[in-house]
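User: Hey, quick favor. My workstation is busy. Could you predict this chain's structure for me?
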Amino acid sequence: SDEDLLNLADVDTKKISSRMKALKSLRDIRNKNEQNGNYSWTLALWPSEDMAKQAGAPLEKLYDQIRKACFLNKENPVQEWENLYQYNKKVCEWLKNLDIEEFHMTSKNVDLKIKVGENRKFISTSGHNIPSFEVYTSPDCRFTEGTFYADQPSFRLGNVVKGVRLEFKNGECIKWSAEQGEKFLESQLKTDKGASFVGEFSLTDKKTSNINMFMADTLYDENFGGDFGNSHIAIGCAFPDTYTGDQKDIATDEQKLEKGFNTSVVHWDLVNSEQKTVVATCKNGEKITIYKDGGFLIK
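Assistant: No problem, here it is.
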């Protein structure tokens, strides 16, 4: 990780947003190649002294968390990954077969409705992020309603934001606040039109994750298990690979938006680890509790 997690805290937030927009053409080329199967990537990270400092823990404790998260403390790590893959595959299939119209997530500080959208699939354990325990999709960005709260601090682009609260109406974030870093939050939300819409909805089952402490890096914090698992949303761009149809049908930003896939130069994961319940409303009108007390209620 970075030697200094707050190395851009004194930089004008507008300059940071301008740089992100300036890199859009390069990002578009990369994303197009990925959609066409010509490019892939894997993200892994080893902690620095400052990451440990910001997490409020000794560096060796972060090392230990990562070893456990990657099953390196097990006799056969590869088999552990295979077991995880098979479990999350079953969860993804189960969610798909429920034919879900909408998720309603509630916790102490969250009351959020997420519309899944047409031709969506759920993805997990793809190998892109090491480690990764989450099950996620890119919902229809046009219909998000309610309030989301991130109880986990977020270190992003050399800044830290704590206590983020977002209020959505007709898909768009219309109200926001933060206990710390509100100016940076506002700058990110105003980077472009899509930065104030949701591009991802994710749930992590506590049974699958060995991460039980705040790590001060999104790669680990969005996969937090702890007592109640976690949910995170990402403001900004969607993941095209959650579309079940031909990728050529969502090749342009206009085509993506027509199908409710958000577009933006921003993709910012914000994590809630509170005790929560997620109720799915199926297209046949049936309501099913699919997640409670940190775990999927898979049948």
